[in-house]
Request: fold
Amino acid sequence: MSTSLGAPRAALLSGALLAAVALSACGTASSSAGGGAASSPSTSATPGGPTSAAASASAASSAASSPATAPASVAPPSGGPVPSGFAATSVTFVSPEEGFVLGTAPCAKAPCTSILRTLDRGASWRGLPAPVVPLVDEQAGTAGPGVWGIRFANADDGFVFGTGLWETSDGGEQWASAVSPGGSIESLAVIDGQILALTATCTANGGCGQTDTLVRRPLAGGGWQQVARVTDPGAIATQARVAAVLDGTRVLVTANGGLSTATHAAPCATAGVSAPAAVAVTGPDGLALECAGGAAAGSVGKTVYVSDDLGAHWTRAGSPGSGGDPDGLSAGGAEQLVAGAASGASILYYSGDGGATWSTAFFAGDGGLGFNDLGFTTATDGVVVYGPVLSDNNAEGRPGRLLLTSNGGASWQRVSY
Reply:
């Protein structure tokens, strides 16, 4: 998951009209109940959670000798019920406890796009309003509006993205159409006070091209600026105020939200034999890179390299299992790495020793439904969407399940909505 750092509250872009925002046709409802309260930022998130308030006593009661006090109460998160049959396509956590999920559910009147919010790490969920735009498959391309991703910078400021960009500054209670950087936004992250986005030209019949444009915009608002043109970038990886993306046989890194960048050659062999497949940030100076090649009958050779100077030098670590095509790489830290794979089955490989040795942490013999938004909020707390939904109303019946880990990726548990 392209996790995001805490940052100042973002104002809605000036001149942006309030988008037509509706409660999901599947049953979400708005509420004025209080939600999470943000606190100081961690490595990749701004913690938040439900606020507690004790019932106040009168001055006379306070002075009395009776020890009786009113019981504490917890304000429930705002929103309505979870729509029946909800399935996820994208997830973002702003603390170990608070997260937002974008997905869809069967509904009577399209679009059926829905957003859920949790304040207790998935123990309970509430439905939130969503931009009135259908959920679509980003790889298929679309001639009209569509969304496929969600990212929050903190408990209040968030974005839904796809063929356009929608923005909230009140925790998802209201959404406004924001100025888009153009094209289709394939990946988005908020880091070091900047929004980073990868945009591509996509068509309904031809899908998306191989070359993307990396752009940035201040979280507080402003125009989009081009950072670089990159080839086959995959998702933006972030952690510890560092962001990294692939650029063909190279890795591009920024430590200041895209204001400046450095590009280094990847250690993979000649393209076509072995080439970069995914990159992860492991710390303020660290990267992990997965090289892959030699595909045959549902298996692909994979090798992980690590760097402690943001890609200037690389050291070979080890190899995840050969089963499955590469499908994401993330890290809780320099020691704990997780690599996704999908082809015939969906697999999460885990390493607890910096990529030297690997084991299978999750396996589903499902024909290769795959993953989305594999990422960590802390060194131990991670999340991924298994079998992400591809279309509004989930006509394909994909599971769109949320998996959480609390031990750095060594094991994963399914979360119920």
Observations:
- The chain has one helix and 36 strands.
- Residues 288 and 306 are 4 Å apart (CA to CA).
- Residues 1-75 have pLDDT under 50 and may be disordered.
- The radius of gyration is 21 Å.
